[in-house]
# Entry
Amino acid sequence: MPIDKFVTLESPAVPLPIENVDTDQIIPARFLKATTREGFGDNLFCDWRYDKNGQPKADFVLNDPTYSGQILVAGKNFGSGSSREHAAWAIGGYGFKAVVSSFFADIFKNNALNNGILPVQISDAFLAQLFEAIEKDPKVKIKIDLENQSISVPATGISEDFDINPYKKKCLLNGYDDIDYLFSIKDEIAAWEKAAQ
Amino acid sequence: MAGKTLFDKIWEKHVVNNVEGGPSVLYIDRHLIHEVTSPQAFAGLKARGIKVARPEKTVATPDHNIPTMEQHLPIHDELSRFQVNKLKENCEANGITMYGLTHPYNGIVHVIGPELGLTRPGMTIVCGDSHTSTHGAFGSIAFGIGTSEVEMVLATQCLMQSRPKTMRINVEGELQKGVTSKDIVLYIISQISTGGATGYFVEFAGSTIRKLSMEARMTICNMSIEMGARGGMIAPDETTIEYVKGREFAPKGAEWDKAVAEWRQLPSDPDAVFDKELTFKAEDIEPMITYGTNPGMGIGISAHIPKVEDIEKASQNSFKKSLQYMGYQPDEPMIGKKVDYVFVGSCTNGRIEDLRAFAAFVKGKKKADNVTAWIVPGSKQVEKQAIEEGLRDILEEAGFYLRQPGCSACLAMNDDKIPEGQYAVSTSNRNFEGRQGPGARTMLASPLTAAATAINGVITDPRTML
# Structure
């Protein structure tokens, strides 16, 4: 499935200052029975977001009208656990285009990139500054510039650079996915297979 | 030039090309699929009008979403039944072998791969499941992938992967009595945290690892993902070769001799250099148990839960939140704590040796009345063997019941859910909030600790009963 292009994003952010947010929190296993990619956003962080009667819990950030936006800012080691891509679908389905943290689990990072969601890995110190900026002004905008690999808060002047694999960057900027690439080298793969046998 | 690691040797043999400044195109020898993470991949192929490139290299089994009782009946949960049927439909349409419910080869994907000889040294193996790292115990590069990547493998038999760094974790010396490979891996994770190996592929080595059986090695590699590693692996040796020999899909005759000769070349060269190397002493390891909500929150069973001030300042809030979920206080002992459920099974500890160890421990004893126990074999073959060896009879005499195979309460996608607020000692791999059911509280431990706890009805150090 071709992915959405990602060039720059300027948006307020939703803060989730919890460490080790695992894939079972992002989307509990009981919601993995679907056979399509749609609809997972409704159950994003389900057990933190709703009580057992399905009523929104007032103390969870997604239910707090103070916060909104297309950027999720989370504590370190985000996305650990399962390889379920449903976690990325839930985050994208809810409307987030980027997740910012000081550390990501590997598989989650790949899954996010394969769905056009940008994982932005920053230092612990910058993450603390972001949480502080959002606490002071919940509507403060965070700017993510993929071309220049920089994340900033224009209103306060803080910024930091981030790393991304150059190939993945190109994919996101242009909306390509890996299957497009792999399919373009089909003959090369077939030749390699033949030689390896 | 420095020698090569086990990882380097297998990786380099499978690189089709290197994208400039980017990942490698890695050829995949074995692709395993199950009902939960494959339907969207097949749908993606259909939308693109692409056929499965190498159907003979993919094997399917339903395992995550199936009942562990009365498997001969249609699955009563509509969504689960639909998903399992979808797998069958997709496999039939694409010429992929599937071992469905009640087939003698059905079981948890990471249990059946090794037992059928589909998993072999030197291979690249992937599956849309993070515990694919299990297969690394044979000296293969095995790792979990997302559904978009499942689609890539189905479409081209290749994956785009950045080369991870390499780490060697050595465990040296003699294990104490009552300490198992589950305790080794829980100990390592407690020492390096759930992100301690992120970005790395880990080779487990050292005298303690060498002495372990294949099944014990699989338990360690299985949980390498819980330290954040892309995968874990153990160099093939005589134990490995002996295990693979004669299995259904293992090479035979001259092919076998050729394969074994290749496998003997795989171990890391003596002068190989790893990006990181750690060493642990076996005698420092006690039976382990987790007290919190990630697999890194483990302690020796005789220890107390840490105090808040022992936790790094930035992590104290997450620590407190975790204890609150568990209903525990800092500095409490774990031994003697209340338990409602005991779960033995999963791709971590659902193999025949696990059932043997559990059965030997409970033989002639009685399950505590306050404990509900779910004993779930990892596959039909494990179930059959357990019955043939008389393990089921021993279990039944002690008040236990052997269910049918599946992932079961490890992730509670089926009806095997721990009720809200209840405590479970579980031989599975994850103690995340709600992992075993909404509000369920999980303590990870070995089959021996699970057995001692099931008999006493409270958390028990198995060494006191050996």
Q: What stands out?
A: The first helix of chain A runs from residue 23 to 26. Chain A touches chain B through 59 residues (CB under 8 Å). Helices of chain A lie at 23-26, 46-49, 86-94, 106-113, 124-136, 166-174, 178-184, 186-196. Chain A has a mean pLDDT of 95.
